[in-house]
Amino acid sequence: MQSRPWLIDAHLDLAYNTLEGRDPTLPLEQYRAADPMAKVQRATTTLEELRLAGVRLCFGTIFTMPQGKNSMSDATIPGYTDHAGAKQQARQNLDVYHRWEDRGLIRLLKTRQDMTDHLDSWTPDSPLGLILLMEGADPIRDAADLPYWVDQGVRLIGLAWQKTRFAGGTATPGPLTDAGKELVQAMKDLGLTVDASHLDDAAFWDTVEIGPQLIASHSNSRALVDGNRHLTDDMVRAIAGCGGMVGLVFCNSFIRRGWKRGQPRPTLGDLALHAQHYANLIGWQRIGLGTDMDGGFGAEGSPDPIDRYRDVPQFLDAIPTEHREAVAHRNWERWLRERF
Ligand SMILES: [Zn+2]
Question: What CATH number is given to the structural domain containing 12?
Answer without folding.
Answer: 3.20.20.140
